[in-house]
Design a protein that fits this description.
The protein is α/β, with parallel strands linked by helices and 317 residues long. The chain has 13 helices and 13 strands. The chain has a seven-stranded parallel β-sheet. Strands 7-8-9-10 form a four-stranded antiparallel β-sheet, with helices on one face. A two-stranded antiparallel sheet has the order 5-11. Helix 12 links the parallel strand 12 and strand 13. Helix 1 packs across helix 2.
Length: 317
């Protein structure tokens, strides 16, 4: 047998196991793999962490605060509804998971049968549709924009729409065209195509729309960053995008660069939808969510608790 760990090393192991298990939601088997120890060792470390007061487990009803925040968001922004995920976790992937699951449960209980459901872009929208249970409201699912070269294939709007239709026992339309077209002639040829024209016509008949909120200030894609820089050369200052619709800090529409023609449902088409559900959260999205709310397009906002607090408090000061 090897020599026992020094006390400080053992404490570090307990803390590491507790962080992975309680804060990141990994299983004990996954924690064991991360730490290169056995699962019984992880179980022992977690038990010792509780015994030594490293981990304190308190069972509370977080919905009480979330409900109050939801009411405050609805009243402040004139929303039809709001869902606040009762968590302080702001770590990227875990936050996406929590928002996606909460959004899926909201859609499952609220989506009327047989509607035209527009689907937008974004990792959070992607997570939401993958979190849907298989139910049968049977919507007609419509992509809200063309494809983008900025996204991985899994995040392509057609793929997100396909998964949504599959989980909701609906029918999926596909838009086989890019969202961004630089040639006027190509754009006119695309919109004249019968298959493309059919999808575009449905943007005027949306019942519900599910969209993400993108930040123009925190951009990972170099291509999208270049697009925003070209837009800024016109003197505009975009803060957020709603399915390719750029908006400034006051919620005003920002036109695309002069040489770009967009295949995407515009702000007015979204505004005419009976219910627009936006899902977004995290500190980096706060300014973008503010801008999106100021457009008056959003009817239902799904966000996390810290973001909701900021959205309410910053508007009260």
């Amino acid at each position: 047998m090897g020599q026992p760990l020094e006390e400080s090393d053992h404490i570090s192991q307990m803390v590491r196991a507790a962080e992975l298990y309680y804060e990141l939601g990994l299983t004990q088997e996954e924690v064991a793999a991360h730490m290169a120890v056995s699962r019984p060792t992880v179980s022992r470390l977690l038990r010792q962490a509780r015994e030594q007061d490293i981990v304190r487990i308190t069972v509370v009803n977080p919905r009480s605060r979330a409900k109050a925040l939801e009411k405050a968001l609805v009243e402040r922004w004139g929303l039809h509804d709001a869902v606040v995920v009762p968590t302080t976790v702001r770590r990227g992937e875990l936050l996406l998971q929590r928002l996606g699951e909460a959004g899926a449960r909201y859609l499952e209980r609220s989506l009327p049968p047989g509607v035209h459901l527009g689907i937008g872009l974004g990792r959070t929208v992607y997570q939401l549709v993958h979190s849907l249970d298989r139910i049968s409201p049977a919507p007609k699912v419509v992509p809200l924009c063309g494809g983008t070269m900025f996204a991985e294939s899994a995040y392509h709007v057609n793929e997100i729409a396909r998964i949504a239709a599959q989980r909701l026992n609906g029918y999926c339309y596909y838009l086989h065209a890019p969202a961004e077209v630089s040639s006027r002639q190509v754009y006119e040829a695309l919109v004249a195509d019968s298959a493309v024209a059919e999808v575009i016509s449905l943007w005027d008949r949306l019942d519900w729309a599910l969209i993400g909120i993108g930040s123009a200030q925190h951009v990972e894609s170099p291509e999208w960053q270049a697009y925003l820089q070209r837009t800024a050369q016109t003197g505009a200052q975009p803060v957020a995008d709603l399915c390719y619709n750029l908006v400034d800090a006051e919620g005003g529409s920002v036109p695309p660069p002069p040489d770009v023609h967009l295949l995407a449902a515009d702000i007015e088409q979204l505004r005419r939808a009976k219910c627009v559900v936006a899902v977004a959260g995290g500190q980096q999205k706060i300014d973008a969510i503010h801008a999106a709310l100021r457009t008056g397009v959003i009817d239902v906002l799904l966000t996390d608790e810290p973001t909701a607090v900021h959205l309410i408090q910053s508007e009260e000061t």
